[in-house]
Amino acid sequence: MTQKVLVTSIFLHAGGEVDHLLRAEGFEPTYAPALTKRTEDELIGLLDGVSGAIIANEPFTDRVLAAAPDLKVISRTGVGFDSIDVAAATQRGVVVCNTPNVNRYAVAEWTLAMMLGCARHAVKNWTEMNAGGFKRFEGTELYGKTLGLAGLGGIGKEVARRAHAFGMTLLAVEEYQDQAFAAQYGVTYVDLETALEQSDFLSLHLPLNAQTRHLINAERLARMKPSACLINTARGGVVDTVALAQALREGTIAAAALDVFEEEPLPADSHLHALENLLMSPHVGGVTTEARQMSGVRAAENLILALKGQAPASPVNPEVIPTARYAVSAT
Can you give the residue ranges of the D-isomer specific 2-hydroxyacid dehydrogenase catalytic domain (predicted)? Predict the structure, then answer.
């Protein structure tokens, strides 16, 4: 019996490279693009008889997993997996995979774009010209400024490389310190409080978990320079959005740039839309042709290996693999 694979990432489609990969291995892909926020009940309906899923950010909760007894593998076309109850998946022997570093260049470039957007008031200047005006909004240079990086993994390092080329002073908050990299790019490892106090720009590159949720709260925003800019291209929940909005309104910090939000899509009536010193984009940091192509292929390769009972390249819960009872043929 052919195994069904559910594909929800909006950029994957029938006839594409991933589709050919799955069919060549004898799997039957079905496509249900997640165009809006998907409910648990909607997801449960899609998982009937499904052995593996290549997903975006659907809510794979304990309830969803309990209702999908045939599911053996969840493979993310991205880095974050906070929408998946990994503990519940592990308990049920479901392998969870992600695709780390596939979008690191894309996200790093977008981070620099957001920094420049804040520093040079890019949107205001472009909007002024498009409206037929010629008022100039004076900005500030990145050269000589201090960039604090909360997280110096794959993406954080790519941001550091680019910021180094701009002549910025680099601080990093990172548990696993790469001293060779730090020496090459002039990175100084510091604690978070030091980064908050000394950074002109603070850029977040952290996963969302119990330790990092609302890491940037009212107390920590108050420790930043009044002239500082906060940039988040990681996960929306790392920042307490209510506290950030208040800090921006009151001038606690000068500006912020967000590519990610606690609720996505961001509601049209969100109070964030009214903030003139907030630059926002719709979670597009990793949305490039190159990053999407690579993430789709890597996610498919992870899923194929896992469904064959082999170790995928990037399992989130590798402890499941040695004892998993899912090794079956594709047909």
Answer: 21-317
